[in-house]
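Request: Mind sharing a record?
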Amino acid sequence: MTNTGSSSVQHSELRAADLATVAEQLGREPTVPFTVTARCTGGHPLVIRNAPLDADGAPFPTTYWLTCPDAVKTVSRLEADGWIARLNERANDDEMFGAAVAAAHEEAAEDRARALPDARAWGGVGGTRRGIKCLHAHYANRLGGGDDVVGAWVAQRVEPVHPTQRAHRVAAIDQGTNSCRLLVLEPGPDGTEEPTELARDMIITRLGVGVDRTGRFEPEALARTIAVIDRYCRRARALAAEMIRVGATSATRDAANRDELADAVRRSAGSELEVITGEQEAALSFLGATRGLDPSAGPFLVVDIGGGSTEFVLGRHPTLTDHAISVQMGSVRLTERSIRNDPPTPDDLDRLRRGVRRGIGEAAAAVPVGEARTFVSVAGTATTIKAIALGLGRYDPDRIHRTWLHAAEVERVLDVLAGMTNEARAAIPVMAPGRGDVIVAGAVILVETMRRFGYERTLVSETDILDGLALEALGVR
């Protein structure tokens, strides 16, 4: 397999509402593709992450950009008071401070290179290679998870930006076989209103590559995963999360050297790694997927297609699980076992289908699937297939969440994907970096599930185990 950790510049995720809000905040249409990195109380964008290239293909110097007008004004006052010059003087006179500034630039260059390797040479925070150019950029870099001494200095003097900021914020990190995801939530004002999402992010690190074969994390996969978790924890703390909950699933359950990951989580998050059992994973996915659904549409079947395992969960009422099983059948695991050619041959696909049908048979023996009235699909396979079926030019979660995906659409998309090379699938604008080479296996799981149980359509959900972890941490169901 290829493409295990690098990103494609073409991929982006952006809600249409956020595009309109950022244009209003900036007073102009954005000229660079971006995603929202952090939000303020109230949910409006606080920091965006710009692509390394602008719309014309020219290098763009600033990765993290502060957009909230209140935050911009507050930091501008520090600049107007002459603090850029004074901090530059400090960096020249104070060896430790100067080294910390240099380290922030180096880390920022590495972070930008995640989207485009050539961009590593284009400078650090705000596009500069040395010194301090812009306090807004340093503060935004810190809110994006950068270990930024200047950004931390700014934070001490401007926060909270909004006096309505509420306490008891929490963060959850879902460390899966294929991806690492972050969610930061702020509770509603009286505990009954919906929590506010302050950050939601996903980076495919392919932690579970080779685990099915060796029973161990590969050193490179472990290193890149730990680096992402470390940055996510810094972002969560910069957003004032009081608790960081890290849950790990299938690959970690199977890895003999998982203590190395646990030690890293303890250092970064200040909490213990939770190695989630298959039953817990199923219950958390069901909580995240069904919260807020109409109870009259139940019973509900939730299927969570992961990298290492797939969970089948049945519940008569939203958020409450009655039957569940976690099957050792995931997109990464089955790709490693079955796909030997690029693109896959008919023999590869036959091998893949046989493995999927065995897994589905195991699920059918444990969960009374026939009782379900509504079939809900969560995780990246279903959401990406829906985005492809819609023909989206960029990934917009609002266009996908809780929309119906019909069996005929899934089969059509699978046929197209199976005929493409890994490189061609990775170039699809809505394909997350690192998913292209395993999505065929995920799509086969979804198709065979719908065929086996006679479902003509599935409700696609953007909320899943990650949301379950965060909601539990908030004490919300």
